[in-house]
Amino acid sequence: MEVPERVEALRRLMEREGVKAYLVPSTDAHHSEYLPECWKRREWISGFTGSAGDVLITMDKGGLWTDGRYFLQAEEQLKGSGITLFKMGIPDPLKLEDWAAKELKDGEKLGIDPRLISVDSATQLAKTLKQRGVLLEYIEENLIDELWENRPSPSKAPVIVLSDIYSGQSVREKLRRVQEKMQEKLCDAHVIASLDAIAWVFNIRGTDIDFNPLVISYAVITKDAAYLFIDGDKITKELKEVLDGLVEFRPYEDIRSYLKGFEGKVWIDPKTVNKWIALNLRKEVRTHMERSPIQDMKSVKNPTELQGFRDCLVVDGVAMVRYLKWLNEAVPRERVTEISAADKLEEYRRKGEKFVGLSFTTISGYAGHGAIIHYDPTPETDVEIEPRGIYLVDSGGQYLNGTTDITRTLTLGKTTDEQKEMFTRVLKGHIQIAMLRFPAGFSGKQLDAFARKALWDVGKNYNHGTGHGIGHYLNVHEGPMGITPRDIGVPLKAGNILSNEPGYYKAGEYGIRTENLITVVRDDEYSNDEQEFLRFETLTLCPIDLNLVEPSLLTQEERKWLNDYHRTVFKRLSPHLSDEEKEWLKNETRNI
Ligand code: ZN
Ligand code: ZN
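# zinc ion complex -> structure
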């Protein structure tokens, strides 16, 4: 079945259910950003493969709402699907709710699988739809699943136990911390649906989802016990031994009967727990709706995790240096394409100590492809990288001791003054964030503009956040904080690790992004009794292409930051390099 036939088949089921529209959200029952194959329903119905974007199908139309990272990709992939692209985040796009109201008559219903919408979003959506005369209808059985022949089955892969050597904290201690928070709020239980939160608390990792080392499961922590709802085939002898006496295992599906039998007061994170969970609780059950304390605990890395990041970033930096050196030498002399380059980078990373896998699909974009923010080259789009213009590579690895995410933009030959200017303006924004000192209590939302100022000065901007949190051998995107205009205003805390990745994109011509991981540290010099100050420390170790830097556009301070950074990169990486590699890196990190 092609996309238009699938949509037609869905409409027949919508008719049966008595709804005039059906929402297919981007996510799954665990609010995941990247999904296991068996739950990629939005992709199945629309053909759009991006990691964010909801689809709404009505009786005669269809719409996809996605953000700036995916505009160009969505336009390509929706061709011939009959589904219209609505661009989120640029002024005045028609919102999904408004479009639904426009397409549906008063009193008509919009259906959704309650597993695929968070408690908060469900409340919000029901309210805005109601104001527009449309009713939200929960349909328990997923209509896409009913149509999807040969849908892949969920993975049976065994759970990986993460040693305390890497996690820095035992499961016993983590459960105690969560239970303490529950006690503060007088809760008897905490239901957890986020797979990365579950992985963090129970020190488990898995292979159920590409790039995100997660295990499909639900968890409930009570005052004196913990339950892990997980496919029995995934439980190993080692896991049983490690969690013996701490955790009780139950089949994944049993979460429903557990919820139905629950009595007392339960803590629900309304942004990550799905509506279906709430619908399965009995009326008498009291709920405490607040962000899960695990999110905040997880985002403040402990000393072992921080050291793990520092260590794996040396390994990752060595792989990047070897790759960049190879690329610089190979491009003028042999055929290198976007895909063959990405493969080569993976080959270098695989040799690294404690490497587990990639943390996301490598974005390897030459010239115009670099302007597609989440460009993932396929054999159909693959082009040769030529010794001129700009090439962008955004990639990362999962290591037992950390997760990496780095972008470098480089030229392999001739470049234009405009490209150099824009690269330098992006770099200025990157440096402004890296050098920033700010009072404790400020959120990334309030810092984001510093990264954009040098672009705003010439009437330019970029359609994505400046930074996201990152997990420890977990998801490459992790909340609750971020450095983005869309941030919910979570104050940054010492121990947070984020990316610093401003960019600039000229559609059809080139894309620029410079991304390092940074950690929040206390600014001892500026902090005093009245006011604590924080600053960032850059963790990623990899040269920034000086061939694209226009030094006259940098301030004295910015130039000093760049020189200092390059000195650190050389100092930390050179002990792990051959003489020839060292010589190459020496030149790449020269003073300007
Ligand atoms: Zn990245
Ligand atoms: Zn990133």
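# post-check
The longest strand covers residues 516-522.
The chain has a mean pLDDT of 96.
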